[in-house]
Amino acid sequence: MELYELLKIQRKKAGLTQEQLANQLFITRQSVSKWETGLTYPDIENLFVLSDLYDISLDELLRGSVYFKKPFLVGKKVKFHQLIIKTLIILLFCLIFPLFSIWFFVLFIPALISILPATFGDYWMITKKGLFIRTYSGNPFVKLKELIQDVWSKNADEIRELIPYQDIAKITLYYQKKDRLSPLDIWPDELKLIVLLKDEQIIFLAVSRELQQALPQAISYFEKKGILFEDKNQLVPLLVAGKEIYSYMHQEDNHE
After folding, report:
1. How many domains does the chain fold into?
2. What terms describe the molecular function in GO for this protein (predicted)?
């Protein structure tokens, strides 16, 4: 997003008119109007005053979100202690459930293979080189082997798939609405990034709550790498303004 758009969003978020903001900054309303149309920009002193007035950092004021360090992790990487703790929980369950029956030995291995891998999901990272993506197999046995490999491998980066930025043509922010078939249907809507590679391959990446907060800067970073970004539903301005995406995307449903 451009700076003039961010300045306008933050002013409205603070509930101020251009006239009210100008009075607090001891400048003319025309000056504020020029900032918000991109004709001029605030000087450094006014940027500091705006930062204090809106109670946000300069990063949030100038970039639309808090600064995110790279690599930026989306999801959770598997760690050795997590594997051990979850294995012990499954072991304890298998000991207690059959009430010390000989069936413990029959239950433990199948439970370990079927339950443990399901507790870990795919993850990806925004790095300076490109997007690192770790996708696990749908086969529980193979996935368990991959999880152990992730923990023990000294060259973890070789396991993940690196997609250099120069191979990416476009990234689209996509909101997938879920139809609620019953009051018991609690599955949430999904916010995703659709990554279109120059060889026309398509990759879907989940957007975590943490990434939502840093999304304006992530988008700016992608655009600086020469990647086209598409936001058909104009969700980024909503995120910057601190508005609820779900309500916005379901407003038609609420009117029915």
Report:
1. 3
2. DNA binding
Domain with 53 in it: what CATH number? 1.10.260.40
Centroid of chain to Cα 196: 18
- Give the pLDDT score at 111: 78
Gap between the Cα atoms of 2 and 4, Å rounded: 6
Burial 205-214 (b: 16+ CB within 10 A, else e): bebbeebbeb
Return the pLDDT at 19: 95
| Pairwise CA distance, residues 54 & 240, whole Å | 13
Residues 55 and 88 in one domain: no
Domain with 43 in it:
3-63
Encode 162-175: b = buried (16+ Cβ within 10 Å), e = exposed: ebebeebeebebbb
Residue 236 lies in a domain: yes
Q: What is the pLDDT of residue 17?
A: 94
Using left for φ > 0, alpha for ψ between -120 and 50, and beta otherwise, residue 226 falls in left
Do 51 and 77 fall within a single domain?
Answer: no
The DSSP output letter for 198 is T
Q: Evaluate whether 79 touches 151 at the Cβ level (below 8 Å).
A: yes
Residue 140 within any structural domain of the chain: yes
Predicted local confidence at residue 49, as pLDDT: 92
How many other CB atoms sit within 10 Å of the CB of residue 33? 15
Residue 38 located in a structural domain: yes
Ranges of the chain with pLDDT below 50: 255
Residues 97 and 38 in one domain: no
Are 52 and 78 in a shared domain? no
**127 within some domain:** no
Query: Which letter does DSSP use for residue 186 in this model?
Result: -
Pairing mode of beta strands 190-197, 123-126: unpaired
Half-sphere exposure of residue 245: CA atoms within 13 angstroms, side-chain side = 20
